[in-house]
From TrEMBL:
Gene3D superfamilies: 3.30.420.40. InterPro entries: ATPase_NBD, ROK, ROK_cs. Transmembrane segments: none annotated. GO terms for molecular function: ATP binding; metal ion binding; N-acetylglucosamine kinase activity. It comes from the Bacteria. The keyword Electron transport does not apply. It is an enzyme of class 2 (transferase). The lineage of its organism: Bacteria, Pseudomonadati, Pseudomonadota, Alphaproteobacteria, Acetobacterales. It catalyses: N-acetyl-D-glucosamine + ATP = N-acetyl-D-glucosamine 6-phosphate + ADP + H(+). This is N-acetylglucosamine kinase. Its EC number is 2.7.1.59. SUPFAM superfamilies: Actin-like ATPase domain. Keywords: ATP-binding, Carbohydrate metabolism, Kinase, Metal-binding, Nucleotide-binding, Transferase, Zinc.
């Protein structure tokens, strides 16, 4: 059995996971956001009944592989904290940590919709967008611990020469991204960003869900917004597919519940990639809220496979 925790900005989800994906002793406790000792104490208490077992963590953040330092924007007390080292000192147990989007992709590759695929790029479409890349059943490590972050690159760029006013008004604005860069795909892609894009495109203030519903009924303004969204998202994700060679793209997050949107994005991607496919590449993920825990469990399965 494998001790696992899925740590987000609201809750720590904890369980003992069997190699076949069954969970036992599942518990959820609020995440202490501003108190590092309380945060570490919560994990120590959750693990206490299993003193000799390693702990495997999926976290809404990134662990630098060289320093062990955690960067987690939604969990302030972990900023610049070597979490694994602290937990090892407190409990004596080995600790392995990975990004939650990477763990999602890993779980779908082992237990979910992507089982049997060698190259898997998992996509999160939620408040923001994220992803993880799995090759041969393992997370592909990235520079500084970052991989799969297809939403953070300046895909919306200023024109190289000045444009007249009419032409300039057709360009998507250079919105500032939370990562510090302007023009990231994430600035127009997630749920809140789509709502902002809709306003810029001439629409009225609406939720992303209302925009999707209007789009499906043929509303012209919603159609314009989604045409822009699909154009940028399709191009961005097609670039990822061409680079990684992924044969399936599991999709999770709140926006994935809009089935027609996922289908439309799949069409936009397949129209832009180099290889023709007869079936969909984008598939709605199968594991739901269990993906983080199961992905953390896969970290333990990977270690066992190497022993």
């Amino acid at each position: 059995m494998i001790l696992c925790a899925d740590i987000g900005g609201s809750f720590i989800d904890f369980a003992v996971v069997h190699p076949d994906g069954r969970t036992e002793h599942r518990r959820s406790v609020p995440t202490p956001l501003d108190n590092a000792p309380a945060f570490i104490g919560a994990l120590v208490a959750l693990c206490a009944p299993w003193p000799d077992m390693p702990l495997h963590i999926a976290i809404a953040g990134v662990e630098c592989p060289d320093t062990g330092i955690i960067h987690a924007a939604n969990i302030p007390c972990l900023q610049a904290l070597p979490l694994a080292a602290h937990l090892h000192r407190e409990t004596g147990r080995a600790v392995r940590i990975a990004n939650d989007a990477d763990c999602f992709a890993l779980a779908e590759a082992h237990f979910g919709i992507a089982k049997g695929h060698r190259n898997v790029f998992g996509v999160i479409l939620g408040t923001g967008i994220g992803g993880g890349f799995v090759l041969d059943g393992r997370i592909v490590p990235g520079l500084g611990g970052v991989t799969g972050e297809w939403g953070h690159a300046p895909v919306v760029i200023p024109p190289p020469v000045p444009l007249d006013q009419e032409a300039a008004e057709t360009l998507v604005p250079l919105f500032r991204c939370g990562c510090g860069i302007s023009g990231c795909l994430d600035t127009i892609a997630g749920a809140r960003a789509l709502e902002r894009l809709h306003l810029w495109a001439g629409g009225t203030p609406q939720t992303s869900r209302a925009i999707f519903e209007a789009w499906q009924t043929g509303d012209r303004q919603a159609g314009r917004t989604l045409d822009i969204w699909l154009s940028y998202m399709g191009a961005g994700l097609a670039h990822v597919i061409n680079v990684t060679g992924s044969t399936i793209v599991p999709v999770a997050g709140g926006l994935s519940n809009a089935h027609a949107l996922v289908d439309a994005l799949d069409e936009a991607v397949r129209a832009r990639i180099l290889t023709t496919t007869s079936g969909p590449l984008l598939r709605r993920a199968a594991l739901g809220a269990d993906a983080g825990l199961l992905g953390a469990a896969c970290l333990g399965l990977d270690i066992r496979a190497q022993e």
